[in-house]
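Form P-L/3: holo structure prediction, ligand S-adenosylmethionine.
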Amino acid sequence: MTIGTELYLELLKKTILFEIWLEHEGGNATFQNRLEGLDWPNIAHSMIGRLRMNQLHQAMNIVINEQIPGDFIETGVWRGGACIFMRGFLKAHAIRNRRVFVADSFEGLPAPDPKYPIDATSTFHTQDFLRVTLPEVQQNFNKYGLLDRQVTFLKGWFKDTLPTAPITQLAIARLDGDMYSSTMDSLTHLYPKLSIGGFLIIDDYSIGYCSAAVHDYRAMHGITDPILPIDNYSVYWRKTK
Ligand SMILES: C[S@@+](CC[C@H](N)C(=O)[O-])C[C@H]1O[C@@H](n2cnc3c(N)ncnc32)[C@H](O)[C@@H]1O
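OUTPUT (holo model):
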């Protein structure tokens, strides 16, 4: 790894998170909020914040160093920033045999499904701020020069797109769909494809709907790999069996 690679990736994170111009963001954009991904940005291309973006970076470094096979996916991408960083990472390391899957409805969150009663009180689907169209996300990739054939967009509800997605093996699955249904659908269809040693990242663990799905899925499948904190809101584990 060269110093140029590291400098590019650091600048990419600063740009995606709009850290360099934070004083122009408006809203609740303070340094501390952007560090922890606590504000909903007006301009930045990701809302996950610096600590979670750094953890994604670290996970990708480990996957490469340990040669954990598989592609990268995020389910729930909003403006696309975390996936843009994944693609930038692969490009910076001249890695051509891994793809980035970008899964989203591109029209916001689903209304609660009676199949998952725990989501009944969720109002995320009413939030226009969380609706970002596919052309907007593609344009964001393009702005960084990172829209190419190594990126595959999966447009639609996770329950419809993930079962038939052209994914064979994953090294990193980053789940950011907030709700029980979105988290459970992602785990159900993606976890069996996660390599041993791969990273399962849960952005919304602090949201009760999401953590309930995580605990139910782990109990159903006897998963005991330790859940490790990223910041006060997000967690990950590495698959050992
Ligand atoms: C909190 S945002 C994701 C933030 C993003 N990871 C970032 O880097 O800023 C949640 C996203 O999940 C999507 N989403 C949630 N549940 C979904 C589902 N069941 N199917 C498709 N998209 C879903 C929404 O459209 C929205 O773009």
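COMMENT: The pocket of S-adenosylmethionine is lined by residues 46-48, 74, 76-78, 81-82, 104-105, 108-110, 130, 132, 157-158, 176-179, 181-182 (CB under 6 Å).
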